[in-house]
Design brief:
The complex is a heterodimer of chains A (256) and B (269). Chain A is 34% helix and 24% strand. With 256 residues, chain A is of the alpha/beta class. The longest helix of chain A is centred in the C-terminal third of the chain and has 17 residues, at 176-192. The N and C termini of chain A lie close together (10 Å). The relative contact order of chain A is 0.18. Chain B has one domain (2-257). Classes of the chains: A alpha/beta (256), B mainly alpha (269).
């Protein structure tokens, strides 16, 4: 399926990425990427290591300046309205744990203030319950297991009820039961709120279960886009994982 | 405005949490300053005993070292606050939030000012009790002296933070010797005229040299001239603005080149 054929469900996207490129010298980490994430939508950003997923996420988070192109979050231009755009965003990534030398509650309080969360004590208490973190409320994040740290990071990502939630391999360190639980919570979050989720993962079963749409990145470009349940069949593959392997090893066979 | 104040308070609160929960962070705040006071207090008493000077060495030397350590403490307050985020690899979390560079720096400045004032209070009381330092003998001029030294320490701290942001955590060892490198030109213990002629001009570009000249003028019963203090204020504010400009430029460089996104001890030199 041609990337342009698949559109997000909502008319006003929570994330609109247009012609995004990032050049490092001669190397294009991201090359003319355009896509949207609509309200209530969970979009999977897939691709092999080095395809440009994290570069794209870093640009959307405002911590990396694109060489060209633009990002609009909930209608706010990230370049000119950075604060307004980031107030509507939050993220969780395995490579950005919360400081290990603060307790769970201290970290959530500090980030509540950074995101200007109203009635922060109530909101933190709610999230501690929701992510089963009450027993660890006064435990330093650094001594938590990786799965517990991931749950803290997800709780932080939900603090400001973001319109756009970016999740970079959110279930990578979780056991299957917890991962299933987290997937359900994030699906509920997208369904119940005027929010969209951009999700990266290397677990194709998870992606099929959670995402309504996937984008396959290869060498900084969107190679494929579509419904994760039907996309493999369109390219003669049995599973999304087979399609992923083809994207990683033989991307040229998929290019039009 | 309220949300801006909350974000600045968040940076301050994070550092307060770190301090509150850690003896290893609290003790060094005071111990080096107190040791310096002990050392210079003993030297001052010894010089009082063997010399026929008409002034009190405690007021001259110990007073100067207390003020100098205040500058050092304000520098360290900025740098340590910044390094806490380097050590915990927190930049991605912080700058993906709606936090501006100015708000981040403001939080660090507040932290540095709070710790510097607390440490100064403890050190002054200690120096008074143990060595009889009459710190308030300098009169109302103490206020501009302390303010100028604090602002210059903050400027050095911001400059040092920019160096670490640009060249990575390993560059922190370039920052800690700043006070030692500057102290000969700051004329903490001797008048500017004691420097070789070729060093006097660079010393005139170092704002603390004016403060310590003023300090000695008060002790010798002369008034503090207005003009040198104005020069000192202009140099201090200029250095502070230059340091802020340098930090913001460095931050933008790290956002453009991807250094900020990849910032960690493992990925940056």
């Amino acid at each position: 399926m041609n990337p342009s054929q698949t559109k997000p469900k909502s008319a006003s996207p929570v994330l609109a990425v247009a012609g995004l490129s990032k050049q490092y010298g001669e190397t294009a980490a991201v090359n003319g990427v355009s896509f949207e994430v609509g309200c209530h939508e969970i979009v999977g950003l897939l691709g092999p290591n080095g395809a440009g997923k994290t570069t794209t996420i870093n640009i959307v988070l405002g911590v990396l300046e694109p060489s060209s192109g633009g990002v609009r979050i909930d209608g706010c231009d990230l370049a000119s309205e950075r604060r307004r755009a980031l107030e509507r965003t939050n993220f969780s990534a395995v490579y950005a744990p919360l400081p290990g030398n603060l307790t769970v509650w201290q970290n959530l309080r500090v980030f509540s203030m950074l995101y200007d969360v109203a009635r922060l004590r109530d909101r933190i208490a709610e999230l501690l319950r929701e992510f089963d973190l009450l027993p660890f409320r006064d435990t330093k994040c650094g001594v938590l297991s990786s799965g517990e740290q991931t749950r803290v990071s997800l709780a932080k990502a939900m603090l400001n009820r973001p319109r756009l939630l970016l999740l970079d391999e959110p279930t990578a360190s979780l056991d299957p039961a917890t991962a299933r639980d987290i997937r359900a919570r994030i699906r509920d979050f997208a369904a119940a709120n005027e929010a969209g989720v951009l999700w990266t993962s290397h677990n194709m079963i998870e992606v099929s279960e959670v995402c309504g749409r996937v984008l396959f990145l290869s060498h900084g470009k969107i190679l494929l886009e579509g419904d994760p349940k039907t996309l493999p069949g369109e390219y003669g593959k049995e599973t999304l994982e087979d399609l992923f392997v083809t994207v990683a090893r033989e991307p040229l066979t998929l290019e039009e | 405005m309220r949300s801006r104040a909350r974000r600045i308070a968040a940076i301050l609160l994070r550092l307060f949490y770190l301090l509150r929960g850690s003896t290893a962070r609290i003790v060094p705040l005071f111990v080096w300053q107190v040791l310096e006071v002990v050392l210079w207090g003993l030297i001052s008493h010894y010089l009082n005993a063997i010399s026929a000077a008409r002034f009190n060495f405690v007021t001259v030397l110990l007073g100067a070292i207390v003020l100098w350590e205040f500058l050092v403490r304000s520098l360290h307050g900025m740098v340590i606050g910044f390094m806490e985020d380097v050590w915990s690899r927190n930049f991605l979390n912080l700058f993906a939030a709606p936090l501006s560079v100015g708000e981040y720096l403001a939080g660090l400045v507040l932290f540095s000012s709070a710790t510097s004032v607390i440490v100064l209070t403890v050190v002054v009381i200690f120096a008074k009790l143990v060595f009889g330092l009459a710190f308030f003998k300098y009169g109302l001029m103490l206020i501009p002296f302390l303010l100028l030294l604090f602002l210059f320490g903050i400027a050095l701290g911001i400059f040092g933070a920019a160096i670490v942001l640009r060249w990575g955590p390993a560059a922190e060892w370039l920052i800690w010797p700043f006070p030692a490198m500057l102290s000969p030109l700051a004329c903490v213990f001797y008048p500017l005229s004691a420097l070789p002629h070729w060093l006097q001009w660079p010393a005139r570009l170092v704002p603390p040299s004016y403060v310590f000249e003023g300090l000695r003028a008060i002790i010798q019963g002369r008034g503090v001239a207005l003009e040198p203090m104005l020069v000192c204020a202009v140099l201090t504010v200029g250095t502070l603005l230059l340091a802020c400009w340098g930090f913001i430029r460095t931050y933008r460089h790290t956002v453009r080149t991807g250094l900020l996104a990849r910032y960690s001890a493992e990925t940056v030199n």
